[in-house]
Each structure stands twice: as structure tokens, then as C-alpha cells.
Write a structure and sequence with these properties.
The chain is an alpha/beta fold. Helix content is 42%, strand content 17%. The longest helix has 18 residues. Bound molecules: NADP nicotinamide-adenine-dinucleotide phosphate. NADP nicotinamide-adenine-dinucleotide phosphate (NAP) binds next to helix 1, helix 4 and strand 7.
């Protein structure tokens, strides 16, 4: 019978959870069993994880009993919500409740909750510097995660609260890469002024989470933040220019222009960047790079990430 502690991972076929499962499985010491939770055990991604040695189990956040089963017998659980699948902070709160209750009922000994700041602590709803969205949020996909911290605390779950950072992979998957102008020049657009944006290779989040599980109880009850680098838009554009072999200019737009770009979630992201810009010192300070590297020695810089991924960045107009 399997004696090693099991870490059950939500979102295992996605960015954060996938990085964690692969990190667990690639450790030559095989300290933990990686249990990959997915809604579809027959997908190519799920099969690939099984091929690497993961226990692949089915569960759906919309079916709490299935999650409780998936957490049964696990020592650790990685909990993450999927805002961009539904754009609903209320659903994130409901999903966080489902995860926390399932972890409690299964007696999980160490939960990592992938969270972000409730920005309303810094920018109350009556603060007019950015618009209130959906009636009661400033940055909906941040605020609900921060609000959900309380769910884990109230259940007295042994939780590490993990503050993540902007994925550089958004340049590939979220349409945030450089764009060509009509005159043939290239722009990289961010509403960050001259402030630094903490960023990370999405895969490295799992590596940091693994480092937290490896430390045992050290970070239970604590909030820890991670990033690969803190870079200004200008620095990112310079590194993009070098990697892509073409001049990419930093196009600094005001947050109100970004909010009005019209794609789904543009207002949420405009407010998010404004929060990061206006509270740069706090936001970068909460995501220490040296600390992140101590959890995950393979942590990439933006330049290293670009070297590996530059050909995957879609270059469009
Ligand atoms: N993009 C960024 O820069 C960034 C930065 C920090 C934090 N975040 C946060 O990261 C979160 C998303 O994490 P991610 O990027 O790792 O996700 P992702 O790559 O989009 O992966 C989502 C995975 O979640 C699973 N899933 C979706 N709905 C589910 C459900 N109802 N029950 C069980 N599993 C479900 C899916 O797996 P199956 O299809 O296999 O079931 C899917 O593979 C978001 O809340 C976002 O706000 C994003």
C-alpha cells in the first residue's frame, strides 16, 4: 500500500496545479504522491499526467461530494479557483467554500490556498480613483479571493495563503503580447506608468507551492507571496525586443484607457493594474524574489522565460 503522503491538486490540467503536479512527480526523492484532480480523466492532459505517474481522479467543484472523495486520504491540498472560466466573484466564493469544507471533512493537514489581495482594504468602494465593478468590487478576481481567505480561517484549516503574481504566460494565452501598429512599429501595452509589475512563469508557481509543502508546517497560518521578477513595462519591452529581435516599445496607457479596451474583463484588469501601480511598494514587497527562489531554486527570470517561450508569443496587430 502507498505510504507516502498524498498531495491532491485542483486545476491539475491547468497552469498552477499542472506546475505543482509535474514538480511533485519530477522530484527524484519521490517525497509525495501527486493526485491530479480533473473533471475529465480521459482528456489528453489528464492522460499525460497519469503517464508521468500521477494518481488522476475525477471531481467537479460544482459537485462537493466528488471533491470530498478526491481529497480523501490526502495529506495536502492545493486549492485554486478559476475566475476566467465564469467571471463571477460569487462563484469563486462558493467554490472556495466547497474546497475548504471538503478539505476539512477529509482531514487534510496542509492546504495551500492560491489567493490574491482583497483590494477594497486599500481602495474602499467609495474611493473614486477607480470605478466600483459588479456593485461591490474594485478588482473582482482579486477581491473575491481575498475575501475567501476568511472561509479557510473560520474553518480553522491548516492553511498557507499563497499570493501569486501576473503570469508572463499571459503574453501567450491572454492576448497581452506585443502588437504591431499600422506603421510597422511594435508596442507592448501596460497601464503601469513607471512602476514595477511582479511577474512569474506560471509553471514556477507550482514549484514554489511544492517548496511550501516540502517545508512541512513552517508556513501554515502564514501569508506568503511569490514572483520571479519585478519589472517595469519599459524593462519588459527591452527584454522582449532582445528576445524577439525587433524593437518593442513600452506603450504606457492610463488605466481608464485600458479599462475601455472592450475585451471581457478589461475593466477588472484595468483596475488590477492600477492597484499594482498605485500600491507598488506594498505589492512588490509582498512578493519577495529571494524568498520565492528559496522555495523554488529553478525560478525563472523574464529573460529565461522568454528564451524558452518566445516562439509561442502570438505576434499580431
Ligand atoms: N493569469 C494570471 O496572470 C493569473 C495570476 C494570478 C492568479 N491567477 C488566477 O489563477 C486562477 C486560474 O488558475 P490557472 O491559471 O492555473 O487555471 P487554468 O490554467 O485556466 O486551469 C483551469 C483548470 O481548472 C480545472 N477546472 C475548471 N473548472 C473546474 C471545476 N468546476 N471543477 C474542477 N476543476 C475545474 C480545469 O481542469 P479540467 O478541465 O481538467 O477539469 C482546468 O484545466 C484564476 O482564478 C486567476 O484569477 C491568474
Amino acid at each position: 500500500m502507498e505510504q507516502r503522503p498524498i498531495i491532491a491538486v485542483l486545476g491539475a490540467t491547468g497552469s498552477q496545479g499542472g506546475g505543482l503536479v509535474r514538480r511533485i512527480l519530477s522530484d527524484p526523492n519521490k517525497n509525495f504522491v501527486g493526485r491530479a484532480i480533473t473533471r475529465n480523466v480521459n482528456s489528453d492532459k489528464a492522460k499525460a499526467l497519469a503517464g508521468l505517474g500521477a494518481q488522476v481522479v475525477a471531481a467537479d467543484l460544482d459537485d462537493p461530494a466528488s471533491l470530498e472523495k478526491a481529497f480523501a486520504g490526502a495529506y495536502g491540498a492545493y486549492c485554486v479557483t478559476f475566475f476566467w472560466e465564469h467571471f463571477s466573484p460569487e462563484k469563486e466564493l462558493a467554490n472556495a467554500t466547497t474546497m475548504a469544507r471538503a478539505a476539512k471533512n477529509a482531514g487534510v493537514q496542509h492546504v495551500i490556498w492560491s489567493t490574491l489581495e482583497d483590494t477594497r482594504r486599500w481602495v474602499p468602494l467609495n474611493d473614486s480613483r477607480m470605478p466600483t465593478l459588479m456593485g461591490k468590487y474594485k478588482v473582482p478576481h482579486f477581491d473575491a479571493k481575498g475575501e475567501a481567505n476568511q472561509i479557510f480561517t473560520n474553518l480553522r484549516l491548516p492553511t498557507t495563503f499563497l499570493l501569486t503574481s501576473f503570469y508572463w504566460d499571459n503574453l501567450i494565452n491572454f492576448g497581452m503580447g506585443p502588437r504591431e501598429n499600422a506603421d510597422g512599429t511594435w508596442d507592448f501595452t501596460l497601464p503601469m506608468g513607471d512602476k514595477r509589475l511582479p511577474g512569474i512563469a506560471a509553471e514556477d508557481i507550482g514549484g514554489c507551492a511544492y517548496g511550501i509543502f516540502r517545508k512541512g508546517p513552517e508556513f501554515i497560518g502564514k501569508t506568503v507571496g511569490i514572483a520571479g521578477e519585478h519589472l517595469t513595462g519599459r524593462q519588459m519591452a527591452a527584454l522582449l525586443s532582445k528576445a524577439l529581435g525587433r524593437e518593442v516599445r513600452y506603450n504606457d496607457v492610463p488605466p481608464e484607457v485600458y479599462r475601455a479596451l472592450g475585451f471581457p474583463g478589461a475593466e477588472d484588469l484595468g483596475n488590477m493594474f492600477q492597484f499594482k501601480r498605485d500600491f507598488e511598494e506594498y505589492f512588490c514587497g509582498a512578493r519577495d524574489i529571494k524568498f520565492s527562489r528559496s522555495l523554488n531554486p529553478a525560478l525563472q527570470t523574464f529573460e529565461e522565460w522568454l528564451k524558452r517561450n518566445k516562439d509561442r508569443i502570438p505576434l499580431g496587430s
